[in-house]
Specification:
Number of domains: 2
CATH class of the largest domain: Mainly Alpha
Helix content: over 70%
Number of helices: 17
CATH architecture of the largest domain: Up-down Bundle
CATH superfamily of the largest domain: MFS general substrate transporter like domains
Largest sheet: none
Number of strands: 0
Strand content: under 5%
Structural class: mainly alpha
Shape: globular
CATH topology of the largest domain: Growth Hormone, Chain: A
Mean pLDDT: 88
Low-confidence stretches: none
């Protein structure tokens, strides 16, 4: 009989596990953009190279079988948290050196692949460790702590860097090195904590390997079945284009706030951006998402689809106003960002619901993973050229372009077909 506990109180590990899942993602996707902007990298290079960091999440479904076939989910979680901690320490050490852009990008690549693999292991471990009724009961807990990680990364971490910039007399590389050192220490603590606290569920075993030919056929069969789905071209168009405008906006929002007034920006400090975009913005995003989920449960996905397309796209005009007016009043800036992020949260519900809709049936889990990969690709490609466009035409015209780029979102939303009652809570529930 194993001396290790097969079960533990989910409160002992679910919150910390999903906080640890969210933090590397927000550091790679958002904090890196702010850091590079403060270190003097151009918008073109920032947008191009940090967009490439989406790639591990794009191709995540391709190597998810590796997590199943080698070792346990628990083993992968603990190992990858150590790797992420080491990666964060490496970023801290390479920021002050010559060629820091190339070195830190290489480490961010390692962190991105580790984080994407950690996602696979953590989600699988959650399902193996909890009974179905517990999975449902704690789904809100895991999403809440993932959101808290977003606030901690985009908000508190950036604000810490801003305070350190001031306290070090404007030594920006040192400030960001210290910031990443703090997060590295936090992740080493996560590694130690989860090594001892995570349960050892009996179902968490290395999967039985069939013959290589059979495994390969099964693997490709899942992909073939996905791309044989009815109206797959329209489905792919929706997954790639629904956030076409938002993918460009999100890459340049923080650089726009950080750039000085004479360069078309808002001239905010690092601390201000951490609060505006990383705290107020994330809270508004979360509230929008919660309202979106509630609305769909009341009247169904199809009823709210048009309103959600409007919600995710129309508030982009806030940035047109901010770029032309360049207000100094933080209340105005906070209100504008909150409006845009609330609309994004509400409108993104449509995207999540459609992924659930097209993933139904055989191989639902694998097909949903494929959808998330295509979702990441839809953010990666537009983000890559957004910085170049901004540097060619300036912030004012760039945000006008973003508003024009919302048109494909409306087109693909009109083309998809969804059952009227999908997502609506039944009377018996």
């Amino acid at each position: 009989m194993s001396k290790h506990p097969a079960k533990r109180n989910p409160w002992a590990w679910v919150p910390s596990l999903y906080f640890a899942q969210g933090l590397p993602y927000v550091i790679v996707m958002t904090v890196s953009v702010i850091m590079y902007k403060r270190l003097g990298i151009s918008n073109t290079d920032i947008a191009l190279y940090t967009s490439w960091l989406y790639l591990p999440w794009v191709i995540k479904p391709l190597w998810s079988p590796v997590v199943e076939l080698f070792k346990t989910k628990r083993y992968w979680i603990v190992l990858l948290q150590l790797v992420v901690g080491a990666s964060l320490a490496s970023v801290a050490l390479t920021i002050p050196v010559a060629g820091f852009f190339q070195w830190t990008l290489a480490v961010f690549w390692l962190m991105a692949f580790s984080s994407a693999t950690h996602d696979i292991a953590a989600d699988g471990f959650y399902m193996l460790s909890l009974e179905p009724h517990q999975q449902a009961a704690y789904v809100g807990v895991r999403s809440t702590f993932y959101r808290i990680a977003m606030i901690a990364g985009q908000g508190l971490l950036v604000m810490l860097a801003g305070q350190l910039e001031t306290r070090t007399g404007g030594d920006i590389p040192l400030a960001w090195s210290l910031t990443f050192g703090v997060v590295a220490a936090l992740f080493i603590l996560f590694f130690i904590y989860h090594k001892f606290v995570l349960p050892y569920p009996s179902a968490d075993v290395t999967a039985t390997r069939s013959s290589s030919d059979t495994a390969l056929k099964d693997f490709f069969r899942v992909f073939v079945l996905f791309f044989k789905k009815k109206n797959i071209v329209i489905t792919l168009a929706f997954l790639l284009l629904y956030r076409f405008a938002e993918a460009q906006l999100v890459k340049l929002a923080s650089p726009f706030m950080l750039d000085p007034i004479d360069k078309g920006g808002l001239g905010l400090s690092t601390t201000d951006v951490g609060f505006v975009y990383g705290t107020v913005g994330i809270v508004a995003l979360t509230l929008g998402g919660l309202l979106g989920g509630y609305a769909v449960s009341r009247q169904g996905f199809r009823f709210w689809l048009l309103w959600m397309v409007l919600a995710i796209n129309v508030p982009d005009a806030v940035y047109v106003y901010l770029s032309y007016m360049q207000p100094a009043d933080l209340f105005v800036i906070n209100a504008g960002v909150a409006l845009e992020q609330f609309g994004y949260g509400f409108g993104f519900t449509a995207y999540l619901m459609y992924m659930l809709y097209v993933s139904r049936g055989e191989n639902a889990t694998a097909h949903y993973a494929i959808c998330t990969g295509i979702m990441a690709l839809g953010m990666m490609i537009p983000g890559m050229f957004s910085g170049w466009i901004e540097e060619m035409i300036g912030y004012r015209h760039f945000f006008l372009w973003v508003c024009l780029a919302t048109i494909p979102s409306f087109v693909v939303a009109l083309l998809i077909k969804v059952e009227p009652e999908f997502g609506k809570k039944s009377e018996s529930e």
